[in-house]
């Protein structure tokens, strides 16, 4: 892996930044395709890609800084926006990106739930490509495997500084692969009968479940919350629980609406 692709003068062109930018561009393109296929709101996708992409990067960074690494960054305030050092929490990106998305849809009279259902497969695709950036940068790495199996990172990476030349679990690789599986599952689920908002809540449920179990292989954040789970696992438990309750409510609402419509058809 190469963290630095080339230099323009003294300015480094980093593989991390290039692949991360590419992930946003490609995810926006897929979102445009899905919206165009659906026949609604595709003209808003480019603007949403820019706003939500930037919000996602900012949210991911600030979530990591304040929830995971504040002990370091409170003494290194000027490094808070140095994303190339490693330290991006996808949960924060989803939260701030969703907030910006909600504000945008409300301002343009777009149905937020239906819009989220359309584009959420593109979001998880962007996450999958983003994990490729993590691999190239040597962050979001796994814990030592204790065997000859695993990834040995270059000396310039955070992973090497943390564990040295030990083979580490390919946690970010596995997450990228699982994200691609979730991408396919969401596309399949969109073809089935579902209520408004259920595709997006399914996305949150599937990613939260995958992230929860993958955290057992992660080696960058090992401190347990209340001696039980890691911070990302606690976030996953909350997100999974809330999204499941919302999905069940939306399913009940869908079935109730279908039952009412069936009675009305019979009465006619």
UniProtKB/TrEMBL annotation:
GO terms for biological process: lipoprotein biosynthetic process. Coiled coil: none annotated. InterPro entries: Lgt. The chain crosses the membrane at residues 15-35, 47-63, 83-104, 200-219, 231-250. Pfam families: LGT. Its EC number is 2.5.1.145. HAMAP family: Lgt. A 1,2-diacyl-sn-glycero-3-phospho-(1'-sn-glycerol) binds at residue 131. It is an enzyme of class 2 (transferase). GO terms for cellular component: plasma membrane. It is a multi-pass membrane protein. Pathway: Protein modification; lipoprotein biosynthesis (diacylglyceryl transfer). Keywords: Cell membrane, Lipoprotein, Membrane, Transferase, Transmembrane, Transmembrane helix. Catalyzes the transfer of the diacylglyceryl group from phosphatidylglycerol to the sulfhydryl group of the N-terminal cysteine of a prolipoprotein, the first step in the formation of mature lipoproteins. One of its GO terms (molecular function) is phosphatidylglycerol-prolipoprotein diacylglyceryl transferase activity. It comes from Schwartzia succinivorans DSM 10502. It is found in: Cell membrane. This is Phosphatidylglycerol--prolipoprotein diacylglyceryl transferase. Belongs to the Lgt family.
């Amino acid at each position: 892996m190469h963290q630095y692709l080339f230099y323009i003068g003294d300015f480094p062109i980093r593989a991390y930044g290039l692949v991360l930018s590419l992930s946003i561009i490609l995810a926006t393109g897929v979102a445009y395709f899905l919206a165009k296929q659906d026949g609604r709101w595709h003209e808003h996708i480019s603007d949403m890609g820019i706003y939500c992409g930037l919000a996602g990067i900012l949210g991911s960074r600030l979530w990591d800084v304040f929830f995971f690494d504040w002990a370091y960054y409170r003494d290194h305030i000027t490094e808070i926006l140095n994303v190339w050092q490693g330290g991006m929490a996808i949960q924060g990106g989803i939260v701030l990106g969703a907030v910006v998305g909600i504000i945008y849809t409300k301002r343009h009279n777009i149905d937020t739930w239906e819009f989220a259902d359309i584009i959420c497969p593109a979001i998880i695709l962007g996450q999958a490509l983003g994990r490729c950036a993590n691999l190239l940068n040597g962050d979001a790495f796994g814990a030592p495997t204790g065997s000859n199996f695993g990834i040995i990172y270059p000396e310039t990476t955070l992973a090497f500084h943390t564990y040295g030349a030990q083979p580490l679990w390919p946690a970010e690789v596995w997450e990228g692969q699982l994200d691609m599986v979730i991408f396919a599952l969401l596309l399949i689920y969109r073809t089935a009968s579902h209520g408004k908002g259920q595709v997006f809540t399914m996305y949150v449920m599937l990613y939260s479940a995958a992230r929860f179990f993958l955290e057992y292989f992660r080696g960058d954040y090992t401190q347990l919350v209340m001696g039980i789970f890691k911070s990302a696992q606690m976030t996953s438990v909350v997100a999974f629980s809330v999204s499941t309750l919302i999905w069940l409510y939306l399913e009940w609402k869908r079935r109730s609406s279908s039952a009412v419509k069936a009675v009305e058809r019979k009465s006619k």
